[in-house]
């Protein structure tokens, strides 16, 4: 009998061992999708905080793909100054979003502040954290860095580090990064302050091809020839990828002395906006009229991946709009 009990006990122990709970592996959580940069052709516009949104027809936003509110200013310790005109910011961003645009904040300020900020890993980290929080809390699509300008031998290395850290942080949260940069037509430390490695960090570069009055004897501060020279430098000499190059155009004219006025001012004074010259307030102004804007837009469609305008308010709300002319040249529907 005892042998039967012993046999039964062994059987139960064996059964219990076989019934030991099977541990099923937990379902693997898919990692966030890898960031994919938008490589479509861009039409970028800036809206400065000192402009009244009521001065721009909301329908005008349909003529853009990206809109930046300018500017958010950093402090040397990596903190951010209060945003100028937050009410205007909210209005402009909401109007742009209503038209399906990608929206962003442009960060700019005194060059010396950027030099100090970028020189320390701690302040770079603080700055990156703060601007990311701003972008996310305001449900923006990205950020534009407008540091004018990092110079070779002063901040080229730390500018590259800052751009990389911004890129890593923003892209991790599916936000884009752009940078406004010099036209590069003047040799020296300004254009050499942009290291080639930076091309890999930003989604696109807004090349500011204006404010160059007198370049090679040209009276126009944003001549077609200067635009060609700028693209030759950045794309051919430096190797910027075509898909990241955005050709910048002004919506304003300048005198040889540096005074400026918007295309809307010229139109109000009865100037022919098809041309590039205005006699305005007893001075000679040169700008980019409809004909030149169309020529540059064609150039951009061949050699770049976008166009940019500084700034939205300077343009007219009428049929003479140079931004409208660019859209028409591209055959783009904005109705």
TrEMBL record:
Superkingdom classification of source: Bacteria
Uppermost EC category: hydrolase
Gene Ontology cellular component annotations, sorted alphabetically: extracellular region
Keyword Hydrolase set for record: yes
SMART domains named among the record's database cross-references: Glyco_18 (SM00636)
Domain GH18: 41-333
UniProt KW keywords: Glycosidase, Hydrolase
EC nos: 3.2.1.14
Family to which the UniProt record says this protein belongs: Belongs to the glycosyl hydrolase 18 family.
Descriptive protein name: chitinase
Organism: Pedobacter yulinensis
């Amino acid at each position: 009998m005892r042998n039967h009990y012993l046999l039964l006990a062994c059987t139960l122990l064996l059964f219990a061992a076989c019934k030991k709970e099977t541990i099923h592996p937990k379902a693997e959580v898919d990692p966030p999708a890898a960031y994919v940069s938008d490589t479509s052709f861009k039409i970028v516009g800036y809206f400065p905080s000192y402009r009244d949104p009521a001065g721009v027809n909301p329908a005008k936003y349909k003529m853009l793909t990206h809109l930046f509110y300018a500017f958010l200013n950093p402090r040397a310790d990596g903190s951010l100054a209060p945003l100028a005109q937050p009410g205007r910011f909210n209005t402009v961003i909401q109007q742009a979003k209503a038209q399906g645009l990608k929206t962003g904040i442009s960060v700019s300020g005194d060059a010396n502040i950027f030099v100090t900020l970028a020189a320390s890993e701690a302040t770079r980290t603080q700055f990156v954290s703060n601007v990311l929080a701003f972008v996310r809390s305001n449900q923006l699509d990205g950020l534009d860095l407008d540091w004018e300008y990092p110079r070779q031998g002063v901040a080229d290395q730390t500018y590259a580090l800052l751009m990389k850290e911004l890129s890593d942080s923003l892209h991790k949260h599916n936000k884009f990064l752009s940078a406004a940069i010099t036209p590069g037509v003047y040799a020296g430390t300004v254009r050499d302050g942009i290291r080639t490695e930076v091309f890999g960090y930003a989604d696109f570069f807004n090349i500011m091809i204006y404010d160059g009055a007198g370049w090679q004897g040209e009276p126009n501060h944003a001549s077609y020839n200067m635009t060609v020279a700028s693209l030759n430098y950045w794309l051919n000499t430096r190797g910027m990828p075509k898909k990241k190059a955005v050709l910048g155009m002004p919506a304003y004219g300048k005198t040889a002395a540096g005074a400026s006025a918007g295309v809307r001012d010229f139109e109000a004074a009865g100037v022919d906006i098809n041309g590039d010259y205005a006699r305005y307030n007893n001075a000679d102004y040169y700008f980019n009229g409809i004909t030149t804007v169309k020529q540059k837009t064609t150039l951009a469609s061949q050699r770049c991946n976008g166009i940019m305008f500084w700034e939205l308010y300077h343009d007219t709300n009428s049929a003479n709009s140079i931004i409208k002319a660019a859209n028409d040249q591209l055959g783009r529907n904005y109705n």
